[in-house]
Amino acid sequence: MNANPTDLVMLHGWGMNSAVWQGLPPLMHGRLAPHPIDLPGHGGAPFDAGRYRLSDWADDCLARAPEQAIWLGWSLGGLVALQAALQAPKRVSALILITATPRFAQAMDWRAAVAEETLAEFSEGLTQDTAATLERFLGLQVRGSDDARATLRRLRAELSQRPVPDPEALRAGLDLLRDDDLRGPLPDISVPTLWLFGERDTLVPAALAERLALLMPQARVRMIAGAGHAPFLSHAEAVVAEIDSFLG
Predict the structure, then answer these.
(1) E runs forming strands in 29-85
(2) pLDDT bucket at 168, cuts 50 / 70 / 90
(3) So what CATH class is 6-247?
(4) Which of 60, 166, 180, 201 is catalytic?
(5) Neighbour count for residue 198 (Cβ, 10 Å)
(6) Active site residue 201
(7) Annotated catalytic residue within 75, 180, 234, 235
(8) Domain ranges of the chain
């Protein structure tokens, strides 16, 4: 094993927690030291309702992260990782973004994204039945993927190992997904970047890969065949191979 492995910050998605990374095979054969971090209000991490902006969430994760690291973010975690790279570029040596996007909500010039109506339904659902809303979101993450039922079982099992998310943090996270747009500052990110997309993702459409290749021509963009929104669970070996190739 490398005596001084590179630190790897790992950020999960909305409504999830850091236990989701347990099923990912070891990365880079001991050359990386994983640092899973729970997003604010998730997995037992505290949440300050007065710190609801994307920059606040990035600051929170930076405060708990190693001084310098590669940052890996899944879904909403990818958006937070991008913001961290913009706020503290000297602390983020590379980015690995799994089924993430600089803008989650659809716009006139950004159709490969989540419909605003869907995000509004989730927000309303949080008020009526938080548990049912999270269960529905779990289903969307595996829809269309190879072996979707097995992936869903693994997600449920891993999430059950941590406390349920703070409802206010869930609402704040939905606001980030709906409102934040990092397409403009994306060219300011100069660190090596890998984008991984799921071919059958119903939340972050695979068509987004072409747009990202234009917005960040220096980045590496790869598609995981047969995968939905959680390829690191359903197609772990393929994801690890892409990460190994990118970092190796």
Answers:
(1) 32-37, 69-74
(2) very high
(3) alpha beta
(4) 201
(5) 29
(6) yes
(7) 75
(8) 6-247
The mean of the pLDDT values for the chain is 92
Number of Cβ atoms within 10 Å of the Cβ of 202: 18
In whole angstroms, give the CA distance from residue 228 to residue 234.
8
pLDDT for 16:
93
Give CA separation, 89 vs 54, 100, 193, 207, 222, in Å: 16, 19, 13, 28, 24
Report the C-alpha gap between 57 and 240 in whole angstroms.
Answer: 27
Helix 116-128 crosses helix 130-142 at what angle (to 10 degrees)? 140
**Active-site residue, 179 included:** no
Active site residue 59: no
Helix, strand, coil content of the chain in percent (nearest 5): 45, 15, 40
> Given strand 193-198, what is the order of strands in its sheet?
32-37, 6-11, 69-74, 92-98, 193-198, 220-224
What does the pLDDT look like over 177-229, one tens digit per residue? 999 999 999 999 999 999 999 999 989 999 998 899 889 999 999 999 999 99
pLDDT in tens, 93-105: 999 999 999 999 9
* The CA-based dihedral angle spanning residues 37, 43, 46, 52, taken in that order and rounded to the nearest 10 degrees: 80
Q: How many CB atoms lie within 10 A of CB 94?
A: 17
Task: Please identify which residue in the block is written with the tokens 């072409």.
Answer: 210
The catalytic residue among 12, 35, 42, 229 is 229
